[in-house]
Amino acid sequence: MFELENFKDNIACITPSGEQVSYGELQALTARIISNLKPYQLVFSMCSNTIGSVAGYISFVNNDDATLMLDSHIERSAFDALYQTYLPRYVWAPKEFASPKGAENIFCEKDYILWEIMSNESPVSDKLSVLLTTSGSTGSPKLVRLSKENLMSNALSIVEYLNITANERPVTGLPMYYSFGLSIINSHVLVGATLLLTPSSYVEREFWQFANDNSFTSFSGVPYTFEIMKKLKLWKIPMPTLRTLTQAGGKLSNELLQFFIEKYEPRGVKFFLMYGQTEATARMSYLDPKYSIIKLGSIGKGIPGGTFSLVDNDGKVIEDANEVGELVYEGANVSLGYAECADDLMKDDENHGCLHTGDLAYRDKDGFYFIIGRKKRFLKLFGNRISLDYVETFLKEKLKECVCVGDDSKLIIYTTDIDYVENDIIDFIVTRTKIVRTVFSVRHINEIPHSESGKILYKKLNID
């Protein structure tokens, strides 16, 4: 999949220490790793934004192994649970990662060790290439199964609509084990671009210093990323070479989108708002920047090679504009399905290029799609069906930061604000929803829980 020899003189990776690796050197490194591997084996790849991590990933994909991408800082109990469930033949991990039980050190380079566990045999399908954890389930055995075709088709689509060339220099603000972060690596390595790899966080001065010192051209984040960037006024940092901002991983508020367009458009920076799911490798749609204000709140249209449709509760396709239904996506990037145990790694393609997203949306008369919420994020209060996502959206007129959870007997608003009056907030909700006030309550929380990739961890919020 990755033809590194085509770009052997290009710089592949740069790190904060000043280390630079060309594509030719990266190819030689991957060849050394592959010489220690058997094909069609399961590999646990403990990810970090480093050369060793990227080299390992490319090696496993090119060698037809199946690699599970995991955070190198995963809790050991979560790692052990996955290890016992799937029994990998190899583990590729940083030197400081404790060796798996019964493992032999067979190769070491770029501060990574390749461990082999001879006693583990988990046969994998010849179609299987990458395994990713489902949203918020790093310790859960439920994984998304991706093929090389999934990876390649999505990467090529991204290259096309973002017009990615070998001259690009993305800075890694997202983890490799997250589908959005991995898609950035795939799409840029595919064209011989330069990855700026840093373990620093975008909230640290060192991150932007490194990015600017190496003439970064793009930065990507989830909604939480841009919330923090606004709060910390990171947009004030001079970024003379920045050309592209991309956002996915959840809905960005219209207010934030307008704010960043206002700040960056005069600098010649394009802001691409996108929509995707791990089950579709990474991305399914994008909103062309020229429509960002005209179609405010839209996820845009399908990526090249992908198509959307809407279906009603009976599965019938909705043809009319502005009618709500479940969003269905079709494309070569739709995953093979899920895995929940070692035997599932031999499964064939269960989705056949079609994904029911679980999102409710409508299509306007111009063919642009707008998501209104998750099918599962609905409550039925006194017979009234109400979207938690909808309540969160309109509450942001009154609260700076809030999230909603509940069941069919109550709806709870958690907020980090401290200067609110509960009765005023509930009055506002009642006015909008026409639902009796006794089902609503407001609770203060010091911090809204987020995953490493910026997703809100709703399950950590108490509904009792």
Number of strands: 25
On the 0 to 100 scale, the average pLDDT is 95
Terminus-to-terminus distance: 50 Å
Alpha-beta classification = alpha/beta
- Measured as a percent range, the helix fraction is 10-25%
Number of domains: 2
| Approximate strand percentage | 25-35%
Biggest sheet: strand arrangement: 6-7-5-3-4-8-9-18
- CATH fold assignment of the largest domain: Rossmann fold
- CATH homology superfamily name of the largest domain: ANL, N-terminal domain
**Large-scale geometry:** globular
Low-pLDDT ranges: none
Q: How does the major sheet shape up? A: 8 strands, mixed
The first-level CATH class of the largest domain is given as Alpha Beta
CATH architecture title of the largest domain: 3-Layer(aba) Sandwich
Calculate Rg over CA atoms: 23 Å
How many helices in DSSP terms? Answer: 10
Provide structural commentary.
- It holds the Pfam family AMP-binding.
- InterPro entries: AMP-binding_CS, AMP-dep_synth/lig_dom, ANL_N_sf, ATP-dep_AMP-bd_enzyme.
- The chain has 464 residues and is of the alpha/beta class.
- It has 2 domains: 369 residues, ANL, N-terminal domain (Rossmann fold, 3-Layer(aba) Sandwich), CATH 3.40.50.12780; 84 residues, ANL, C-terminal domain (GMP Synthetase, Chain A, domain 3, 2-Layer Sandwich), CATH 3.30.300.
- It contains 10 helices and 25 strands.
- The strands form 6 sheets. The chain has an 8-stranded mixed sheet. Strands 11-12-13-14-15 form a 5-stranded mixed sheet.
- The longest helix has 15 residues.
- The protein is globular.
